[in-house]
Amino acid sequence: MVLQKTSRKMNSSQLASRAADSMKSIDEHIKKDQSEIEAARASGDEAKVRHLTEELHSLEEYKEHNPGDKHDPTSLELYCDANPEAEECRVYDD
Questions:
Q1: What letter would DSSP give residue 87?
Q2: Residues 18 and 9 sit within 8 Å (Cβ to Cβ)
Q3: Residue 71: which domain range?
Q4: Are 33 and 55 in contact (CB under 8 A)?
């Protein structure tokens, strides 16, 4: 049996579609996570519950620290909000 490697690169329309599927606001993301936590609890998937609970906590902290910002933050934005002194979060003024 020969396995053939397939390309995983996305074209621009696939990228645009994926971006359109992402959450439009932090509030939508919070509601989605809350719903998924309930579903994971109902199915007994404790690992997923833990993961989503941590993500939900990060989103709620971000929202609290940035009350005027309604966009759905990236994982880097969440990380830097919680760890502003981290090397990858430093901002240099020239």
A1: G
A2: no
A3: 24-84
A4: yes
94 lies in a domain? no
Burial readout 41-68 (b: 16 or more C-beta within 10 A, e: otherwise): eeeeeeeebeebeebbebbeebbeeeee
Could you tell me which of 67, 66, 90 has the C-alpha nearest to residue 78?
A: 66
Q: What's the whole-model pTM score? A: 0.71
Does residue 57 lie in a domain region?
yes
Residue 67 in domain: yes
pLDDT tens figures, 2-43: 555 544 555 555 444 445 456 689 999 999 999 999 999 999
Q: Is residue 4 part of a domain?
A: no
Domains identified in the chain, total number: 1
Cα(57)–Cα(71) distance, integer angstroms:
16
* Alpha-carbon distances, residue 12 vs 9, 16, 22, 81 (angstroms): 10, 6, 16, 30
